[in-house]
Amino acid sequence: MMKSKADEEDYWNSSKYNAFTFDDADDELSALKETKKAVNSIGPLLAEDGEEDWERVSWSGEPVGSISWSVKEMAASNQRADREPAFPKISTETPSLSKSQSGISLSSLFKGKPKGGNLQTFNDVLGDSSLRLYTPELRKPKSEYKDLVSDWSAEETVQRLQQGKGVTLEKFRSLQDKLLLLDLAVAAHDGNAITAVLIYLKRTLCKEVLFRELESRQTALRHFIHYLTESREQRLLLELLRALGRTEEAALLQYKDYKNIADENKRRDFLKSCLSLQFGGEDGNHVQDHYTLLERQIIIEAADRKAEREGKLEVFQKFPRKASILNMPLITTLYYCCFYHYNEPEGTFSSPLNVRQTFKISEKQYFTTALAARAKLKNWTDVDAMFNSRNWLGFSKKKSPLSFQRVVDILQKNSAPTRVLQEYVGLVSDAELRIGLAQKHKCHDIVINTYRDMKDRQQLAEYRKKVERGSAEERKIDELLSNQQIRWKN
Known about the structure:
By secondary structure, the protein is mainly α. It is built from 26 helices and two strands. The protein has helices spanning 5-14, 28-49, 67-83, 106-111, 122-126, 142-149, 154-162, 175-187, 191-204, 207-215, 218-230, 234-243, 247-255, 264-274, 283-310, 314-318, 330-340, 352-358, 363-376, 380-387, 404-413, 418-425, 431-440, 444-454, 457-464, 472-481, and strands at 388-390, 396-398.
């Protein structure tokens, strides 16, 4: 029944609530006060009327709990069940509450769920499966899920390691299972699988048990030694070698640590401590020589540094040192001593003869090194003295532990003059080789004399074309060719 305009005005004027006016829309403080006042006024109103007298209605206007409301709710539920597929679609729109499906009353909003349990709260409505957004659970295929969690056997685990697939080795806890896994990896001849199992055994077994089991498995042992070497776990590697009785390898491994010591005095002390290790064969002698050489280098370096600073020796002023002698090889040390200390008496540490005697350097090695050092200094007097030798009759003769061809090469590399080269080219025994060296270094007299001795007129005439016109070499060739006393073979 429609109310008249006068009745509506009486209702609003007599009501304890104020009607909404647009005049207060911009006044936020007034709106907040009005809202607070309206909320506070609901409590007394509900207390006066009582829960039983408050009529609960749905959005459709039907009283909640009535027969017509129940029939409509049942029909709506059946209709939703018929429309929903087995797997609901994903809706991209925000779900809205249908007025016909909702049983929310004003009293449920402010007083909570009623005692009868017929009325739903907001949480119940929003938790309803028919109103939720459905997202399909995207699970991994069973095969992939099985790869991660299945109880793989030792054989299957090794196969997966060969294939590069992820596995867990933690399930192999007993010693028997771990060793079976290692044996299978070795039998598969796969280095990556062997190394992976060895890393697991290294982490889960005590050293004594691991070393004992590896001793009877040489292939796995070699892989483990290589792994420890590459990963630079030297302490564990030393313990392994000593436990296996491989003392010589352990000694050599420990000796190589000298490379990590920069200070020469600390390195010398370390080498001295290595002398007591059990080296095999000639290794012990080499370590002894290494220690002796470094000790001598330290003494020579200190003395030469002082002499160079004070300017006592002329050789240091003409040829300043370019590098320290410390930690240099034996032959480099000998070359250094032949260069700066050649004429020192044998009793001094820096004497080349003392170095040769101490380290048992061969005659050929010593001669080659000394010749290169003196030729570098252009000291041809010392070079010539190295070849002088007297026989038992007292005659002087040039003699060399090296071939004279090698001597010529060393002299030529150090820019020896032609007069020096010519003397030693002429000492080459093979005629063809002597001619080749003489032509290479332009020792014309050697070539002319060799052809003369060979009585080869044609070669001598041919060589005449290669010398300068009007030179002394050309005149000498003409004299030989016109000499009737020479019996030429051609």
